[in-house]
Prior knowledge:
With 219 residues, the chain is α/β, with parallel strands linked by helices.
Amino acid sequence: MHKPAHEHEPHQRNDHEHDHSVVPSDPALRVKSLESLLVEKGLVDSAALDALIDTYEHKIGPRNGAQVVARAWADAAFKKRLLANGTAAIGELGFGGRGGDYLVVVENTPRVHNLIVCTLCSCYPWAVLGLPPIWYKSAAYRSRAVIDPRGVLREFGLELPKETEIRVWDSTAELRYLVLPERPAGSEKLSEEELAALVTRDAMIGVAKVALPPPGGPA
Length: 219
């Protein structure tokens, strides 16, 4: 059984074993230096690189996860399989590989809200969410998500009722998590494709909810 680090409990994970030996002390700085060198040598176009990173961060990766969520909303049998064995269920849709192995899916309900973090580095389900956002990798998020999850969610614009339990799940190199957001009210007539278009990366991390577009707004 996977036990979350609840907001009212001390966060202790002695079994949180990452392969940190290969992670530079400041990976962002090293990546930026390498990028600058490649651009300077004319080997990489800066604009093309930015576009590629944006595509993987906001389009390719998260769209995989959105398809998983939409299928779970539309297909009760798939949802049951997804919550029982996330790795196998996403494999049915052709997603998996590095960052997708041993995936656990946790469901948001009116009474329980789940939040994903990696306290020691930035382990992330790349197969379904693409590249992790910068804030997910920050020391501030990694520490405060456990200590003050309500405060963190509030800063993202998500105010939860006091009676809603918040469960914080700590990812590792061996075990990743994905939030199955609540299906928004009023979406019953939407197709699976239309449902997937509503799902955001942030909702699958747990810092946002899925909402219908405003009347007259973009689909």
